[in-house]
Amino acid sequence: MQKAKSRGVYIDIELPFALRHIATELQAGIGLYKVLQSVAANDYGVLSEEMNRTILEIENGTDTKTALRHSALRSQSKNYNIALFHIVRTLNTGGNLASTINSVADTVSFDLLESTKTFGEKMNFFGIIFIFMAIVMPVFAAILGAIANAPLGQDGSLFLPGVMTPTTLTLIFAVALPIIFIFLVYYIKMIEPKM
Prior knowledge:
With 195 residues, the protein is mainly α.
């Protein structure tokens, strides 16, 4: 199931470009079958592989609409399924396929732009937290450790004995901060847009 989802993500990445390709060739008067062959022959990654499977189905006698429906059922990409649904619907009703595909490409591009924008907004907030954790906290701990271990008493005694010992500072810098940074990197990977 994980492999299918990752294939769906790869399809979503290439989908807007492939849809524009399809619409351009359809506007130029090329037939749908030839356009699908062109997409399969170009470098659209997993999307080209899926188109190859669809072309193979069509060559083995399956109707184009049925082959496109099968492709939608195999895919875990919501946007790809929507695009194929619109293509099949337009083929059934006899509308302008190129304009339909262009509108679907606009919608898919807008969705990708919105997910990227949302990720950017999250990263702005996350940048503030990262600056605090990576710069302010270590400097604060070092200054507190220096003050706590400074011999400020008249008899040379420590100002705050036992508060920030070298062992505590070592634990902060060698254990706590790396764990926090690993968590931050993991969190960034989790909120990254899946396209």
